[in-house]
Amino acid sequence: METLFDVTEPRERLEPVMIEQVGQCFFEAKPCGRCGKPKSNRVHTPKKTATCVFQAKRGCARCGRNKGDVAHFGAPESFNYLAGRDPKVYRAKIEQWKALLFDLLAASDLPKGLTHVLVEGEVSFGDSRKGRDQGNHRVLVEKALGDALVTGGWLPDDTWDHYEFGGFARVEEPGVSAVRLMLFPT
Question: How far apart are CA 15 and CA 28, in angstroms?
Fold first, then answer.
């Protein structure tokens, strides 16, 4: 009879490691430098109705940092946001999250050269909106974390033999956008 778990080789358990990314600011694009309206306003469309030539102001209207700054990363965007877009947009988001998680891992006590890591996590969106699909929000974190673990030398590969992403819970913390991951290495 086959079993799901190999009980002949007990794995050495190491101390769990927690990494956390809390967004410090919810990004808000700066308005047009000429007319003060958002870039999405009809006055900026390239049709005959355009009355303003959009003059971009870079950065966040709230904190001044650029959109890709780590301060704007908390809860991951929904995969639905990326679906149907250019695959380069998806790849760019994965790379952003990979770099962010790599830095968090490098600052943690996670030893390199592990054989296996099990990850459990939680996410807070900052609001209590219902109806979010767990898979749509975990895909970026799950993929980017596996890539970061391999790139940094913590794992030899991000296949199931070495990397498992278990539960991903949603918690409600008003005004806090965050991702917390607990890594259980062996």
Answer: 39
CA distance 166 to 120: 5
Tell me the pTM. 0.74
Strands 17-22 and 117-125: unpaired
**pLDDT tens-digit map of 146-185:** 999 999 999 999 999 999 999 999 998 888 889 999 999 9
Site of tokens 């809860």: 75
User: What is the token pair recorded at 74?
Assistant: 């908390």
Q: Which of 101, 130, 111, 89 is closest to 16 using CA atoms?
A: 111
Residue 37 region, left (φ>0) first, then alpha (ψ -120 to 50), else beta? beta
Say which CATH architecture domain 17-26+68-185 belongs to: 2-Layer Sandwich (3.30)
